[in-house]
Amino acid sequence: MSVVAEMPQNTTTPKLQQHDYPTLFEIGSKGLSAVSLSKSDVPAVDRKAAVPAELLADTTPALPEVGELDLVRHYKRLAHRCFSIDENFYPLGSCTMKYNPRINERAAAMGGFANAHPYQDDADAQGVLELLYRLRCDLAEIAGLPEVTLQPAAGAHGEMTGLMIINAYHRARGENRQTVLTPDSAHGTNPATCTVCGRASVSVKSLPNGRMDLDDLRAKTDNDTVALMITNPNTVGVFDETIADVAEILHAKGAQLYLDGANMNAILGITRPGDFGVDVMHYNTHKTFSTPHGCGGPGAGPVGVAEHLRPFLPVPQVVKKGDGTFAWCSDRPDTIGKVRSFMGQIGVLVRAYTYIRGLGSDGLRDVADKSVLAANYLAAKLKDRYPMPFPAPYAHEFITVPDFAGADEHDIAKRLIDHGIHPPTMSWPIHHCLMIEPTETESLRTLDRFVEVMLSIADEIESNPEVVRGAPHTTPVGRLDEVTASRKPNVRWRPE
Amino acid sequence: MRYTQFTDSDVKHMLSTIGVKSIDELFKPVPAGLRLKGALDIPSGLSELELLDDVGALAANNSPCCERVCFLGGGAYDHFIPTMVDSLAGQTEFLTAYTPYQAEASQGVLQLFYEFQTMICMLTGMEVANASLYEGATATAEAVTMATAITRRNKAIVVDNVHPDTLSVLKTYDRDRHVETVAVPAAGGVVDEAALRAALGKDTACVVIQSPNFYGCVERLDRIIPMIHEHGALAIVAADPLAGGVLKTPGEFDADLVVGEGQCLGIPLQYGGPYLGLLAGREKYLRKMPGRVVGVAEDAQGRRGFCLVLQAREQHIKRERATSNVCTNQGLMAIRASIYMAAMGRKGIAEVASQCFDKAHYAADQIASLDGYELAFDAPFFKEFAVRTTHDVPTVLASCRKRGIEAGVHLGRFGDRLNDCFVVAVTEKRTKAQIDDLVDALQDA
Fold first, then answer.
1. What is the pLDDT of residues B381-413, one digit of tens each?
2. Does ipTM surpass 0.90 in this model?
3. Which residues have C-beta within 8 Å of that of residue A405, sequence separation ≥ 6?
4. Nearest C-alpha of chain A: how many angstroms from B195?
C-alpha cells in the first residue's frame, strides 16, 4: 500500500520532503563570510597595551564560514520546512492564529520607529510617544479599565506584572495574602506565575458545563486570597455568565479578579472586562491584535488595571502633557518598578496600533462576530462525528473529545499535518481533547475544507487506522523520539 | 481595514447551518447587563491609504538617532546590519509560524534555533544555551532565579555598575520571590574587589557582573570569578556577545551562567524593543534553565530531526512547579541574530569586534586630549567608555545634536553620582571622519 498515493492534493507538503538538511556547521569552507565590511580607517590599537593580557582573546569564536549564496539557500530551505499562517490553516485553540496583516510589517519597519534609540530625547521621539499614548488609551477603552501599561514583554510577563501589582496593593493595605486561585482549566502560565511571584496556587473546580463551580470558589476564597486568575471566555470556549457573581465573591473578601486576556478575540466590543468586575488583565498582542507569532515571539503583554491599582503600575509611563506634547513619566511613588529594560516591545506595539486603528471600533466588533460565527459553524458541521462535551453556543473556540477505537487525538492532529493543516491544541484543558479555534480571518472555503478533512480522517480511522496512527507521512521526519532526546539532550552542535 | 472574508451570503449559510437567526444569538451567554452599550470609543476603521498616512505621520514625527551620527549606547547599539538579515529573516514562513511544538511541521525553525544555541555557546564560551528570553534584564533575573534554585541560597549580589535597568528589574522581581538582591558599589568604574569579598558569604547564591559594564569598562573576571567560587556561589556574567572577537569569553574564566542583550546581533534599535535575551551556561545546569531549548532527535526510521527538549521543565507541563513562567521566547529576534552570526561568520565577527575596539580607542584618545574632558575611569574598555567633563553635560549633548551628532548617553539620567559624565559608544559603523567631527563638536560645545 502506498501511503504517498493517498496524500491529498493542494497541500504545501511536497517541498517539505527533503531529508536531513545539513546544519550551518556542516557546510561552508574556512575563510568564507557572507558580508563585506568596510576597512577600518583608524590606527590599529596595540591590544596588549590597552587590555591586560589575561583578558585578551587568544583566538576568535569559531562561527560557521559560509558564502552568501549558500547561506541564502540554507535559510530558504529552513523556511520551507516550516508551517506558517501564510501557507497553512492553524485551527489552534487558545492561540488565535489569525492572519498577520502585511501593513503591520510595513508600519513597524518605518525608519522613524525602527531606527530610534531608547535613549534619544523625548523631543526627537514625539511620534512614537504619541502612538504609544494612543495605544495605551485604546487598550484601556477595549478593557473598560482606566489605565494600561505597555511595558511587559509577553503574555506571561504581563501576568507576572499584574500579579506583582496586586501583591503591591495588598501590601500597601498592610495585608500579606499568600494564595492565588486558578481554575483547573487555567493556562499553565497562571500557576507558574503564582510561583514566580512567591504565591501558592490553589485550583478551583469547574462544573460539567464548563463554568466555574461557585460553591468551590466560595469555599476557597478567604482573607488569604490574593486573587483569582481566570480566562473568560474560558479555556473550554464558553463565556462564563456567572462572572459577575465570581467577581462579587472575590471582592467581598478583598481579593482581586485577574483576567488572562488570551480569549479577548471573542468579546471585542461585545463586553469589557472592567465592566464585568475584572481588576487587572493582560492582553496578548500576538493573539488578539494580529502581531506575528514569529516562531514563538516576540510578543507583548500590555496590562490594564482598575482605578485602585493605578498607583502600582510599572514606570516609566507614556503621558500627554498639558502643552500637548508627550513624555515618559516616572513619578509614581508606589510603583512596582521596571519589569524589563527600556520601555517595551515597541516594534510589536506599533503593529498592534496599526491593527487596531485600521479596524477601528466597527472592525474590532466585526472580529468578535466573525470569530464566534466561524467557531460555531465548524462545531455544527463536526458535531456528528466529533463529540463535544460542552453545550453550544461557543465563543471563538470549542472542544471536542474524539471517541474512536482506532486512533487518538494525537493521531488525528498528526494526520492533519499531511493535509497541510496545523494540528489544533491537544489534550488540554481536558484529557484527550482537541481545541479548535478557526479565527475570523479564514474563508468559508477553508473552513469547509477543514471539515472535509476532519470527516475523511474519521472515515480513515475506521477503514485504515494504521495510516492515521503513523502520521505524518509527508514531512521531512516522522514522529520524533522526544523522550530519548530529552533524556540525553544534544542541544548544540560539536565537531565529530 | 477588514481582514475577514465571509460574504453576506456566507454568513446566512453559516447561521442556518448552526441553526440560529443572527450572530447576536451566539452571544446569548453574555448577560445583557454586561453587554457594552454602543460602540467602543475608538475611531472608525481606516482604509489602507488612510492608515499609512496616519502611521506614516507618527513615524515622520520622530527624528531617529540614525538621522544623525550615533554614538548612543547603554545597552542598545547602532551596529551594521547586513542586508541578508532583513531579507532572510523577513521570510513570512518565519514571521507567521507558531511556536514549534509540532516538530514535524517545524523542522526548519527547530534546526535554526539549534544553530542559534550553538553559535551563542561559541560567542560566550559556554556549553549550552537556550533558544532566547525576552531581553537582557529579564534574562538576568531568570539566571538569578536559576542560581538560587541550584545553590538553595537566596542572596544575589549585583555590582552596581551593571545596566541600571537590570538592577531595577532585579529589585522588582525580588519583592515577590523571596530573593534578596544586594548591590555592591563599584570603585573606579569597576568591581571593588575588596567590597565584593566582604559582601560574599555562605548565603550568597550568585554574583552578577556585567563585563564590559554599563560604563564600558572590562572587569577582571580572571580574579573575580575564582573569588566567587571560593564561596560556593555562582558567577553570572552579563556579556556583550560581540566582545569575544577581542576579549576572552566568560566561559574561559569559568563563569557558570552567561546572560546578555543580543540586540547587537542584527536587531534594529526599535526604540528599545523587541530585543533578545541571551542565556547560556554549564551543561550541568541545563535542566534548571528556563525557556525553550531545542535538541536533536531521531524518528522511527533513524532520520535526524530536531524538537523542543526538556519540556517537563516548562509551565505548560509542570504548571506551578515549572522552573519559570516564561512561555514565549523571542523567536524572530533569535532568527535575526542567527542569520547575523552566520552571515558574519568567524572572520566577520572578529573584524566587527576589532573595529569597535580600535575606533572606540581612537575616539577616547582624541576626546581625552581636549580641554575640559577626560576619561572617567582608567579601566580597559571595549566599544564604549565614560567621559567626564567640566562642562554641563546636557548642554554639551544638545550642542552636538544641533550639529547632527548624538554624542552619548548622560549618566546623570540614572542618578546624580555621575552627573558630570556621559558614555560614548563607538561601533564598527563609525568612520574616522565622524569621530573627528564628534571631537570637534565636543571642543566647540
1. 999 999 999 999 999 999 999 999 999 999 999
2. yes
3. none
4. 22
